[in-house]
Amino acid sequence: MRDWQSQAHVKHYCTYHVVFVPKYRRKSIYGTLRKEIGGILRELCRQQGVELIEGYAMRDHIHMLLMIPPKYSVANTIGFLKGKSAIRAYIKNQEREEKRQEQLRLAGL
Q1: What's the pTM?
Q2: Torsion angle in degrees (nearest 10) through CA of 68, 72, 75, 81
Q3: What is the rounded CA–CA span in Å between residue 91 and residue 38?
Q4: Is residue 41 pLDDT above 80, yes or no?
Q5: Residue-level pLDDT at 25
Q6: Percentage of the chain modeled with pLDDT above 90
């Protein structure tokens, strides 16, 4: 039996199967990033009022089953998730890249 969600004037069961794919389908989702991305997406869904029912990260894409309330547009919700998760991943990677560049510079390479 479905678990219907309810708001002030509506009952709904709006689930969407969403797949995020990196540019050129690069196999870049592995190791610590694979573990971190789940937490990042879970937190962003919570902030947006979206329920992340299930999710799975493959090496070259991410599957998610989302329950998006009808008061939110699907396109805006997905745009929010993609935009905010990409910014966070970029910032984390940028810090690592700067440390790596500094080590190379100190080593004289």
Answers
A1: 0.67
A2: -70
A3: 17
A4: yes
A5: 75
A6: 25
Contact 18, 74 (CB under 8 A): no
User: By CB neighbour count within 10 A (0-12 exposed, 13-18 middle, 19+ buried), where does 33 fall?
Assistant: middle
CA neighbor of 9 nearest in space, from 73, 74, 67, 69: 69
The predicted-structure confidence for 71-85, as pLDDT tens digits, reads as follows 889 999 999 998 887
Q: Is residue 57 predicted with pLDDT exceeding 50?
A: yes
Question: CB-based burial of residue 56 (10 Å sphere; 0-12 exposed, 13-18 middle, 19+ buried)?
Answer: exposed
Residue of 18, 2, 8 lying closest to 69 (CA atoms) = 8
Which amino acid does the sequence have at 25?
A: R
The label of the residue with tokens 């902030």 reads 47
DSSP per position, 61-98: -EEEEEE--TTS-HHHHHHHHHHHHHHHHHHHHHHHHH
DSSP-based three-state secondary structure for 17: strand
